[in-house]
Known about the structure:
Helix content: 25-40%
CATH superfamily of the largest domain: P-loop containing nucleotide triphosphate hydrolases
Number of helices: 22
Amino acid sequence: MPVDVEIDINRGLPMFSIVGLPDAAVRESRERVRAALVNSGFEFPLQRITANLAPADLRKAGPGFDLAIAAAILAASGQLPAVALADRWLAGELALDGAIRPLPGVLAMAERAEREQADRFVVAAGNAAEARLVEGLDVIAVGALSDLRAIAAGEIPAVADPPAAGSPAPRLPDLADLKGQAGLRRGLEVAAAGGHAALVIGPPGAGKSLAARRLPSILPPLSRREAIEVTKIASVAGRPCADGSLAPRPFRAPHHTISAAGLVGGGSPPRPGEITLAHRGVLFLDELGEFGRSSLEALRQPLEDGVVTIARARAALTFPARFQLLAAANPCPCGHGEDSARCSCTADRARAYSARLSGALADRVDIALAVEQPAADELDGDPGESSETVAARVLDAREVQRDRLGEGRSNATMSDREIAEGVAGLDGPARSVLIAGHRELGLSGRGWARVIKVARTCADLAGSAKVGIDHVDEALSLRRRDST
């Protein structure tokens, strides 16, 4: 939110106060601004100084107001011409020697400045590459408070537009490392092609985690708009892009001890959680049965809506959360499964373990795969297809979905209305198979729609304009948690 900094300097005992609902970090800026002005060769007015941060009913947090407050004091005291700072947007933290430190979240600030048609955006040199990712915004990079003299004289030009190519993409683990497990590989490919949530159940050592960490290697690259969204979230979370390169597709794997607030967001003021940090990427929950029930249940609404709303007494904030869920779980606490001779769990203990995943949440998972430990000849055999080969098929399927649904959408985001209007493209025989599968599996209304979405993805991978019997059969098999 934009904040106007107003300074009033009047006669009276020397005093410096900040009003406008400042938090502790903002109140402490009085000392940083005082020291930075003096150490930069400016004069600090020994009068009654009042700084107002408007609007007054919006709580202000963080040290990012330091630079604007200092600039406003210099203009109000006549040390710099006020007209030179008019309509300037400034953001930066001051060091005591006058140096300007970079801030988190500058990309979001720059986007807002561009929408408000700001004349210039003045930021720390360490934030300039990030701010200039916003096209059409003039950015001025400053390294110290004394640079404001040059700005007032018009001597510092706007930073040039960012280069077309950023840093090279990081090298990801290859799917060829997963030997055997043909069903798991196919399930991952379908999940990647349609953006579907998936659950993999199997004993320890079956390759669940290994496969999950290779899912990003077969996902298509982000569009520029999506990459800007991801980079903006990363910047707000304290991971700014100092070199001006866009962030890659995120892969988040929180520990099972995470709280519900850590997963979906919370705190005061509310901060984004892991599902927002995984926006446009993958949220991997390993050892799903060890997560707290409240943490898992908090995923239900974000999985449906793609956003999460955190309501507090002062305000309700909505964070983006369009993530792809991938979870891995053991069949029981010991990991071998009740039907195995090696299982040491009682029936009640095994049921309690599997009940961590409620029916309501399981119904929102499109693909469920049961896997076994690979055989010795599979482990000793040749590697399977590489990520590059699978990613090419996934990219072709995503391009078809983009043409059908629009930029940034996949089959997993199809609405019930789109399905009813025939966007999924089921033919008559395929619908009959779906009706029979509904009776066999006892599908809910949500499960019915999700089988259609997965079937549409299977058809896209096959290059078929219509969803046929084979595609529905495969989608139904991918929803059976007891399938092998």
